[in-house]
Design goal:
4-stranded antiparallel beta sheet; alpha/beta; about 15% strand
């Protein structure tokens, strides 16, 4: 049976994530200690105890989610009950793609965390320099969402950028255009239009300065050639074929759309039957239910699920 590991992106964070796992498993605690040294501040304390306002910022939430996912992954790798659990493929939503690359062995923990920290900082700086926002549109297909963006843009930037699952597409652009889209969405039949708690217009050209900074940071990191474990790219739902393509994909991801639904459909088409969502929250499990109701997704996000997983592997 083919297996895929899935890793969450920004928005999955919650105060307390990883705390019980780090208390119970020294290998997880060590990951957090390494992370604190690499980022240069007490990231683990913010994960475990908050405050939420700090954890939810772009600069903190991105490394926090990556490290928590990596800590859970380390427990799975080293626990005798789960050590044989190996993915045939990995995927991560936006930020989660870095965890997917780490899990597939093409980038080290330290390099991945340095990149993620840089990415969060660069995205925050780009957001501060622009007036951008994002809105989740529930209940419309792609054609209707594009029509909504065309009407609401009024000459300003507004695009569909996150194709998450059937009936859930996130749009991104100028704050004023996002506001108009929120107001016009019911006219197109949307069930809901919800402003996201993010710093700016992610996955658009408003993040160009961040993409340039990330490109420079990537040039200093070692990315190995993909080998046994396949990694699927957010930007086109294709498998990464080379280290060069990985670096290009991570840069392009900041200013381009994310095709999560297509990524999952590709994995399903290629015979993946069992999915594990590893990291905080349950976002990807929920999305998969909308993409393919029959597909099994096992969520591993806390101590209880980590301890239970050994008995669920067949």
């Amino acid at each position: 049976m083919k297996t895929a590991f899935l890793f969450p992106g920004q928005g999955a964070q919650e105060v307390g994530m990883g705390a019980e796992i780090a208390q119970s498993y020294p290998v997880a605690a060590k990951i957090y200690e390494q992370a604190d040294d690499i980022v240069g501040f007490d990231l683990s304390k913010i994960c475990f105890r908050g405050p939420a306002e700090q954890l939810n910022t772009t600069t903190i939430s991105q490394p926090a989610i990556f490290v928590t996912s990596a800590a859970i992954l380390e427990v799975l790798r080293t626990n005798p009950a789960t050590a044989d659990l190996r993915p045939d493929a990995t995927a991560g939503l936006s930020l989660g793609e870095y965890t997917a690359l780490y899990a597939a062995g093409v980038i080290s923990f330290e390099d991945a965390l340095i990149l993620v920290q840089k990415r969060g900082q660069a995205m925050q700086e780009a957001a501060d320099a622009t007036e951008g926002a994002m809105v989740s549109i529930i209940g419309l297909d792609e054609e209707k969402v594009r029509q909504l963006c065309e009407e609401a843009s009024d000459g300003e930037l507004l695009l569909p950028v996150n194709f998450n699952c059937p009936g859930q597409i996130v749009i991104s652009g100028s704050k004023a255009a996002c506001q108009r889209a929120e107001e016009a969405a019911p006219k197109y039949g949307a069930i809901k239009a919800m402003r996201l708690e993010v710093a700016g217009a992610f996955h658009t050209k408003m993040m160009s300065s961040a993409a340039n900074e990330l490109k420079e940071a990537l040039s200093k990191c070692l990315i190995r050639e993909p080998s046994k474990i396949k990694i699927i790219a957010n930007i086109d739902a294709e498998y990464y074929q080379s280290a060069k393509k990985i670096a290009e994909g991570l840069v392009k991801q900041l200013t381009s759309a994310i095709y999560w639904q297509r990524c999952m459909e590709r994995l399903l088409a290629d015979g993946v039957e069992k999915f594990y969502e590893i990291g905080p929250g349950r976002v990807l499990t929920g999305l998969m239910r909308r993409i393919s109701r029959k597909t099994q997704v096992i969520n591993i996000n806390n101590l209880k699920t980590v301890n239970e997983i050994g008995s669920r592997i067949d």
